[in-house]
Hints:
- The structure is a single chain.
- By secondary structure, this protein is α/β, with parallel strands linked by helices.
- It has ten helices and ten strands.
- The strands form two sheets. It has a six-stranded mixed β-sheet with strand order 1-2-10-7-8-9.
- It is globular and about 60 Å long.
- The structure holds 4'-deoxy-4'-aminopyridoxal-5'-phosphate.
- 4'-deoxy-4'-aminopyridoxal-5'-phosphate is lined by residues 44, 72, 74, 179-186, 224-226, 267, 269, 295-296.
Amino acid sequence: MRVHESLIDLVGDTPLLRLNKVTEGLAPTVLAKVEYFNPGGSVKDRIALRMVEQAEKDGLIGPGGTIVEPTSGNTGVGLAIVAAQRGYRCVFVCPDKVGADKLAVLRAYGAEVVVCPTTVAPDHPESYYSVSDRLAQTIPGAWKPNQYTNQNNPESHYRSTGPEIWEQTEGRITHFVAGIGTGGTITGTGRYLKEVSGGRVKVIGADPEGSVYSGGSGRPYLVEGVGEDIWPETYDQSVCDEVVAVSDKDSFLMTRRLAKEETLLVGGSCGLAVEAALRVAATASPEDVIVVLLPDGGRGYLGKIFNDEWMADYGFLSAETEEPTAADVL
Ligand code: PMP
């Protein structure tokens, strides 16, 4: 029988898909690494698996243990899946800008979720960094993976995402583009691709306007999962040749185009990364092969990016779109 023994075995080996429509008029090949094919629906399954496996080896978590982590949802899903398999309890701490659907998914996997305000400074006692620290210290047998400092985060990409992309493109990749959140994806994947290509592959980070990676002060932006107000240890800026700043509006409009034109229903950080990739493509050579990583699917954003009213409230859609009547669709 062709069966998989565990959902965990399905982490990684995601497909590389050519973008055909949003690339119209651009000569280089643009390929999307579609991470929603992971069993938890995002790129974060990769880091969850490696962080837990290594923690077990290092004796940091064992039977009866609890995983405590500040996460915008995707890392939580990955950790929840790995934890459920091994019988660990999960407590996740999320900022309040995260969509309700994402929180419901975490709870569905049996995790407990604590929501914290986005507007307070990182060192404020109610910030999601502080709350998760406090919980990790007080819950007996708790272990905090800390995706912002854990070197197994970039390492998982160095060992899986990077080699997959190199093999899938048969070494023809010339540019790698990814959003920067913890920086794990770009650091691990970019480092591997640079090493294996002898420094030939260019690595380009995509960052929300206002975030520190592209020179901002940490001013709030709406794209979820990317951008920071502090510099995490998991991001090695020497791996990035360039960081492109993209506005919320451009990120969300591209996210909607990806759904309509490429039938890729993906999250806002995917629109951000593709927008950056297309800017790179506009100045690249026809024989160049640009790979852009799409971290997650779009179902968690239906009430926001894919909701016309929400988009109009923020001024991202110019014309108010009304629900079509039966006469309109005839
Ligand atoms: N997009 C989404 C939706 C994410 O959840 C994350 C992870 N925070 C990223 C992009 C960025 O990935 P990384 O943390 O590896 O930089």
